[in-house]
Design goal:
Blueprint lengths: L19 E4 L3 E7 L3 H6 L15 E6 L5 E10 L2 E7 H15 L5 E4 L5 E6 L3 H9 L6 E4 L2 E6 L2 E6 L1 H8 L4 E2 L1 H10 L36 H9 L5 E9 L10 E5 L2 E14 L2 E9 L7 E4 L2 E9 L9
Length: 318
């Protein structure tokens, strides 16, 4: 049964409703099973899969041999299955790449998106809602009767069997995925689209700042480049949060420009965005020395205006 959704009506710079349920229909799940399933994925991604506990989830990236990301994801386990949560369209690109190497291991990788319904819960009443239906949730990952719950600070991702999800939402208003995407952007998270594959080393999208890279786990695809970025430097880009206004309908290919002393110049690339009317909120990869008071705009709308919002985490190396 399909869950009916509503379009968010609040401004992008306004407070959300006390309880926000969102249908995360833009996300999908890769399922990894088999005797060597975990060890195979461990050798492919930036995350330390071998140390992932049953009550944990982690960010990670799957890179090509040159260390450029094919996908970014959250990973966790339900019973014997390791799951990788990422945008559906990115999954369609990334799954065949992983399967290509999995044939040499006792591991089976499948698209498990249809097996689950993904719901986001946020707002000041989010904890109360989740506690009411599932009991107190204190761990990063909690297995429940019909699935699992990922806790991300004061937000929750519910991974539920479709019938259970439909029953849960009941008469509640459920918003479309853009409501959740706005929160992901505000969190400074790097949800990579397939059009950005093979373009960015993980540090260019701040994976190191959200515990998405292990520098102690040993070899994995692209590890040499990722390690060199940390120990020898050379990374000149980072993920930023931008907000502002435009009269144009934007997309991931919309060009950004930054104001310099001699006028506007090419400024970076959009990673994820939400647009409501003339308001926009987005993540973008920019030069990592971009000043916090920098002024940006969209190249095809000279009247547009974009400003940098502070990241909720530090990019300073420990």
């Amino acid at each position: 049964m399909t869950i009916a959704v509503s379009t968010p009506t609040w401004d992008l710079d306004a407070s959300m409703p006390p309880l926000m349920l969102a249908n995360l229909s833009h996300l999908g799940l890769i399922k990894v099973v088999g005797e060597q399933g975990r060890s195979f994925i461990h050798g492919q991604v930036t995350t330390d899969i071998s140390s992932l506990e049953a009550n944990q989830w982690r960010w990670g990236a799957h890179c090509d041999p040159k260390g450029k990301m094919l996908a970014s994801f959250r990973t966790f386990a339900i019973q014997d299955a390791l799951l990788m949560l990422m945008p559906k369209d990115t999954l369609e690109l990334d799954l065949p790449q992983l399967q290509k190497y999995a044939v040499f291991s006792k591991a089976t990788l499948t698209n498990a998106t249809a097996e689950w319904t993904l719901l986001g819960v946020a707002g000041e009443q989010a904890t109360q809602f989740v506690t009411q239906h599932f009991g107190e949730i204190t761990e990063e990952l909690t297995l429940v009767e019909h699935g699992a719950i990922l806790k991300d600070a004061d937000r929750f991702i519910l991974v539920l069997q479709p019938e259970a999800a439909t029953t849960l939402v009941g008469e509640h208003t459920v918003f479309d995925a853009s409501a959740w995407q706005a929160l992901e952007i505000t969190a400074g998270y790097p949800n990579l689209a397939p059009s950005h594959a093979n373009q960015y080393v993980p540090q260019m999208c701040n994976l190191q700042a959200i515990n998405g890279i292990s520098f102690n786990k040993g070899c994995y695809m692209g590890q040499e480049t990722v390690a060199r970025m940390k120990y020898r430097g050379g990374n000149k880009r980072a993920l930023y949060i931008l907000h502002g206004t435009t009269s144009s309908d934007i997309n991931l290919e919309s060009a950004l420009e930054i104001e310099l002393e001699d006028g506007y110049r090419k400024g970076g690339q959009i990673i994820e965005f939400v647009q409501r009317g003339n308001q926009v909120l987005l993540t973008a990869v920019l030069a990592n020395d971009t000043a916090n008071d920098a002024k940006l705009r969209f190249a095809d709308d000279e009247q547009s205006s974009l400003h940098i919002k502070a990241l909720p985490y530090s990019l300073e190396e420990a």
